[in-house]
Amino acid sequence: MRVLDETTLEELHTVLRSLRGVWDEESVDELDHALQSAAKAIEDTADDELVLAAALHDLGHSPLIDAGPEHDAVARAWLTPRFGERVGWLAGAHVAAKRYLAATDTGYTPSQVSVLSLARQGGPGVDPAFVTHPWWPDALRLRRYDDAAKDPGARGATIEDVLTVARRVLHR
């Protein structure tokens, strides 16, 4: 393994660990949310890039990164140079996917915290750049994993599982 890859994996491990005890939702901290999101993607037989994006879509909440309200853009900016354009785009599109689902799916029911953040993120809406992007269907899948990964009793992937997926993405 190249030194650069090993450094990237060490950074990722540090960022993931930093999510323990960071609360954006009421029921699980950001680490459990990340690991549950990854598990949902794995259960759905998502490819490695989608699994990794699902695990890392909220990494902007890490105190090591401190993205503030633009955590989706920060996730994209942090992930793209490390894991490629698709991983970065998918993670960065999770807010656009929420806005799209809120505007188009009458059965869409995000958490109360997510409903509150939606107002700050522009409210329901369809971004033409989002729905014409070739990866947008996978961004909707990621959003569904995100919304389902807020259960205090659910089992998630492990940090090592996420690092294994990241290692495979680095070696593709």
Automatic annotation (TrEMBL):
It comes from the Bacteria. GO terms for molecular function: hydrolase activity. The keyword Hydrolase applies. InterPro entries: OP_Dioxygenase (IPR052567). The keyword Hydrolase applies. Keywords: Hydrolase. PANTHER family: HD DOMAIN-CONTAINING PROTEIN, PTHR40202. This is Putative HD phosphohydrolase. It comes from Mycolicibacterium fluoranthenivorans.
